[in-house]
Design brief:
The structure is a single chain. This protein is 29% helix and 34% strand. The protein is an alpha+beta fold.
Length: 106
Amino acid sequence: MKRSISLLMGLFALAVMMVQAADATKSTGWISDSMCGAKHAGSGAACVKKCIEGGMKPVFVDGNKQVWAIDNPDSVKAFYGDHVTVTATEDATAKSMHIESIVAAK
């Protein structure tokens, strides 16, 4: 009985991870700040860092220059002003995303 319950719990956890991964999308863009948004897409890394240090929130600017709020801003600390590829779950109605992984774009 315990073995069956453990097996079912494991399968449930695997199913949850698969559903979350299915909702995630991969996008390439820039990490900017909430004040400048798309203005610094591809340039102005020093300004982005200064604005975030001054209290602005980091945002993701996609290839279409749409600005997305980031639900977990600590995930992008090492990438302020950089061109990146993110895997994220997007909330289109709130225009926000939860970043699951981030790497420098090639």
